[in-house]
Amino acid sequence: MNIVKDDLKGPQIKALLQEHLDDMYATSPAESVHALDIDALRHSNVEFWTAWNGESLLGCIALKL
Question: Which UniProt keywords apply (predicted)?
Fold first, then answer.
């Protein structure tokens, strides 16, 4: 496993984040969606990492500073 600070430009992370947001809005009340979209994750006060196994995206995490 390789954990990297991610620039949020890769197609795999874009797809994962969009799928997550789509699911959150489909299954949760709007006021209970506590996920940031990709533009908000690119803000300078957010650090974002992804975990990889070769070319396979395993997961991600963000920390708002």
Answer: Transferase
